[in-house]
Design a protein that fits this description.
The chain folds into 2 domains: 9-241, Alpha Horseshoe (Serine Threonine Protein Phosphatase 5, Tetratricopeptide repeat); 248-361, Alpha-Beta Plaits (2-Layer Sandwich). Helix content is 53%, strand content 11%. The chain is built from 13 helices and 5 strands.
Length: 362
């Protein structure tokens, strides 16, 4: 059994650093098999850059107000950084995963099997709900399988919070993720036709194995990738032979009330696909100058209801559309977006360019 288990905040930071290095090493192969939802060959790059943003949250060391022994607080900070810089479908879903993973861990000094099961389940539910039209056979299925396996392992051990139980739960989650990756090939017609597994699913498998490695003090399991269709180094770049995808990817961050966010999701669904919307951070309190000026100052009993209606949240928005202008106009009609970037789907992104410079900037 494992002998160097460490599941504290330092282990979480090691996890993200290890994931950054691993995805950097595998980004070319992940790009090579990236054909869903569009064959733009950038899943590896997007995951790497997003995870790098998460890991960079700790580059300057702990801040004075950071609870250094709080596993949830550390991962929440990393998740927020990832969400702010999320790239593409895969990067955005990873950021959603990390933010949701942190929530049940808040206030805890170490990860345990029961907490892992709860956190993974929260994360997979949040990832599925972030997409307007979630599709099995993607990293969503991999997350769901890992969460289910961790939960079953925890139940079998009656909520044991020992290090040994945690090791077993991590092993179960990674093994289930591997099985789910293998199954992706037969869950999506484009993958089946190309005889490859899902790139995002493989990326999530690598991320979960990095978590296992960082906590258990063991090496990464390189054999996990043996036999995955399309993943041998001598295999061609599958995406290069696929037809170009017309259209663009639009991403931004925007502050909206829940009602306005639901409206934006509906209107983006009408314009395009691959719509992802997820909250960034906590609620923004009502009470700006414009809001105060428009409120009834008489102290009505309905004030609390008005506050709830006015409260807004910051959202990370992602959509694929035929043309950028209608989507940008819809977004601007509902709020004041920041960090708007537009990228051609038919052209792989250059990882050397800063966000927002892979097409047009608005």
């Amino acid at each position: 059994m494992q002998t160097k288990i460490a599941a504290n905040t330092h282990a979480m930071k090691r996890w993200l650093g290890k994931a950054e290095t691993t995805l950097g090493n595998h980004s070319d192969r992940l790009n090579a098999i990236n054909i869903f939802p569009v064959a733009d060959g950038d899943t590896g790059t997007n995951l790497y850059l997003t995870v790098r943003s998460a890991a960079a949250a700790f580059a300057g060391g702990s801040t004075a107000d950071e609870p250094v022994n709080d596993v949830g607080a550390v991962l929440a900070a990393a998740g927020q950084a990832a969400m702010e810089q999320a790239r593409g479908n895969s990067g955005t879903l990873f950021a959603v995963f990390l933010c949701a993973l942190a929530e049940p861990l808040a206030g805890h000094t170490r990860l345990s099997a029961p907490l892992l099961a709860t956190a993974l389940n929260r994360a997979q539910i949040r990832a599925w709900s972030a997409l307007s039209e979630p599709v099995p056979g993607t990293m969503l299925s991999v997350l769901e399988a890992a969460a289910r396996a961790a939960g079953e392992c925890d139940t079998a051990h009656n909520g044991d919070d020992s290090n040994q139980a945690l090791g077993l739960a991590l092993d179960a989650a990674v093994n289930a993720a591997l099985d789910a990756v293998v199954q992706t090939e037969d869950q999506l017609a484009p993958l089946h036709a190309a005889h490859v597994v899902d790139a995002g699913g493989v990326g999530m498998l690598l991320i979960l194995d990095c978590l296992r490695s960082a906590v258990l003090g063991e090496e990464l399991q390189d054999e996990l990738l043996d036999g995955l269709h399309g993943y041998d180094l001598q295999d061609p770049h599958i995406h290069a032979g696929m037809p170009d995808d017309d259209g663009v990817e639009v991403m931004c961050t925007i502050s909206l009330s829940p009602l306005a966010a639901a409206t934006l999701r509906q209107r983006l669904d009408e314009l395009g696909d691959s719509v992802i919307m997820s909250q960034v951070g906590s609620a923004i309190q009502a009470g700006s100058a414009s809001q105060v000026g428009s409120r009834n100052d008489a102290g009505d009993d309905d004030d609390d209801d008005e506050d709830a209606a006015e409260a807004s949240y910051r959202w990370r928005v992602h959509v694929h559309v035929p043309e950028a202008e209608p989507a940008v106009a819809v977004i601007r009609s509902l709020g004041d977006p920041t960090d708007i970037s537009v990228s051609q789907l038919s052209m792989p992104r250059d990882p050397g360019l800063p966000a927002g410079q892979h097409g047009h900037e608005y």
